[in-house]
Amino acid sequence: MHLHKYEKVWLVFGLASLVLFLLIIGFAAFWKGTHPQSHIETIDPQNVEANESFQPDNLGLTEVADGKYVVNIVASAFNYDFGKEEDGTATKTIRVPKGSTVLFQVTSKDVVHGFQVAGTNVNMMVEPGHISRFESVMKNDGEFTVVCNEYCGIGHHLMFGTVEVY
Amino acid sequence: MEIFNFSKKESRLYMAFMHVTFISLLVGGLMGLLQTLVRSGKYTLPFNIDYYTILTTHGVILGLVLTTFFIVGFQFSLMGKTVGISDKQLMWGWISFWVMLVGTVLSAWMILTGEASVLYTFYTPLRAHPIFYIGLTLVIVGSWIAAFTNFRQLYVWKKAHKGDKSPLLAFMVVINMIMWFVATLGVAYSVIVLILPWSLGYVATVNVLLTRTLFWYFGHPLVYFWLLPAYMAWYAIIPKIIGGKLFSDSLARLAFILLLMFSIPVGFHHQLTEPGIDPTWKFIQVVLTFMVVIPSLMTAFSLFATFEITGRRKGYNSLFGWFKKLPWKDVRFLAPFVGMAAFIPGGAGGIINASHQVNSLVHNTIWITGHFHLTVATTVILTFFGIAYWLIPHLTGRRLTPRLNKLGIIQTFIWAIGMTIMSTSMHIQGLIGGPRRSAFSKYAGGDQVSTWISYQIWQAIGGTILFIGILLMFYIFIQLAFFAPRGYEEYPIAEEEVDAEKSPKILENWYLWIGITIALILFAYTIPMIDIIKHSPPGSIPFDWPIGRS
């Protein structure tokens, strides 16, 4: 099969770029630990409280060490349960100081949801039976909309929250 | 090269597929327009119609119905032209048409009555009415009948032409249909074995991750199933339209074989942000995804080489003279060319989407919607339109008149402008976090959300322009089908150079290429599938109320 000289140059250049590109994302993933979230940890979707992280008292923001936080969230159609405020009303806004490291842990009680803190790298699928986790350093201050970005039913666009970095 | 003439009854079959295609374009396009209007925040749907009903209709009608009907019909015509069709095969062609049409009507009925607002990716454990799943199964089974008829057509031709290489276009059709068959096995298993019994209540729970994985095993080759017929036109039809010859028969075949191999074992790149799949296997499938770069680069080279060789032969020898002298005023060339141009940003966006960790920046944002409106809704559809301008009059015994040609050129411009506005604003809004698949919402308010909404207004403007383009295209279709003057329109098929090199026999070694394809699938999916099943959580019970079913 005949390959034109220019086509050989074109393909060799293209393939070399591809190899370089794959090495970069491979290096970032395996050595720098920037894999997309994949914890393969399961949970019973009809009994999420059986997992300590998702008991009603443990939902929402907890400071686990200096500058390190965990946020536990139970998603269900069409709401994110971020726990309760001191006055008993449902928490809608998570407030963390700038520069803090925040681990988001989310699971679903019913159908498939999304969980994105828009404007950050936190973007996960949330599926019944699985726990989704993503840790991020909140480098910028401001208000970030938490949005369900995976279709979950006719109230899908009404499912949201806020992360405020101050 | 042997070229068969179409009999009247043959043309009728191919036209039947075209009628469904263009009716789907109109219906699906209207849904798209309504979506962009709703998302602008300035318009609410009448009669209590739910946003997600029109979203599901838009996706199913354009993503599955329009594409599959056009492709099956176009491919039947390619087979009829290059290897011929017997009466018995013609009958099977009609059976495939009717099975697909009945399936479409059943699914459409469920979607339009709000019983199936599950979008075309199914979204278990949301549960649609069982008839929705049965309808979609019929669409796929109908396309299988077409696939096996196409296989039979080439087989019969081969037996009568011992030792000859198969016609290039017939070879390409068979590659596409092998890929389609192997890929749809996954979604068919998911629907028939996992979802249907569960939707009927015979099984209590469903494994959500398994249905998603099987869907995406099908979902990515699906996009290649749309693209390959466009490639067929680019490789083997466009050269004829511009007055040239095939660039290389063997390289075209090799590109199609590579596309077959690397189209299927790649579905995880749609599931990169899912919690239940091992990241190493995700990365392996990312690498396999990127192998598509090779046939893509080959295709780009071959297209521009054809353009240049043809132009220089006509005596346009200056550096870019051959490019300036391409037949820009021939819509049969212009529309597919604009499609090719859109594939450059489309492909670049695809590289971003499939890039393992970078994906989390854009996953499920409206960036993705912007991406596939460049690829399928510009590259592929403009090429399909480019085919329709000669295929429809060829089938109906009419002519593409200069007036219709001109309208086609205007249509192409309208499409390019509308899509540039809509797709660009989708890409930008996605990069700053705006979600896809969502009705208008102000969420918690704030600056972020009001920026999103400003881009949604641009999408409504682009969407409106595109809908005007759809109306114009539908008008052109009706003209070509029923009113254009009688005459003869050429079915352009490019020929090889007289002194073309012989294509190696190995390119037609089906056992080898299908064998490698299956081996790659087994490599990419066996271990992660075992993991998914072994580590599966308690199954999910069905949910009806979130989609408004009682």
What does this molecule look like?
The complex is a heterodimer of chains A (166) and B (550). Chain A has one helix at 5-30, and strands spanning 60-65, 68-76, 79-81, 93-96, 101-108, 113-117, 123-126, 132-137, 142-147, 160-165. Chain A has 166 residues and is α+β, with helices and mostly antiparallel strands. In chain A, strands 1, 2, 3, 5 and 8 form a 5-stranded mixed beta sheet that branches. Chain A has a 5-stranded mixed beta sheet with strand order 4-10-9-6-7, with no helix packed on it. The model of chain A has no long low-confidence stretch (mean pLDDT 92). Chain B has 550 residues and is mainly α. Chain B is 70% helix and 0% strand. Chain B contains 17 helices and no strands. In chain B, helix 14 packs antiparallel against helix 15 (402-431) and helix 14 (366-396) packs parallel to helix 16. The radius of gyration of chain B is 23 Å and the shape is globular. The N and C termini of chain B lie far apart (60 Å). At the A-B interface, helix 1, strand 7, strand 8, strand 9 and strand 10 of A face helix 6, helix 8, helix 9, helix 10 and helix 13 of B. Chain A: Keywords: Copper, Membrane, Metal-binding, Transmembrane, Transmembrane helix. Chain A: The chain crosses the membrane at residues 9-31. Chain A: This is Cytochrome aa3 subunit 2. Chain A: Residues 17-166 form the Cytochrome oxidase subunit II copper A binding domain.
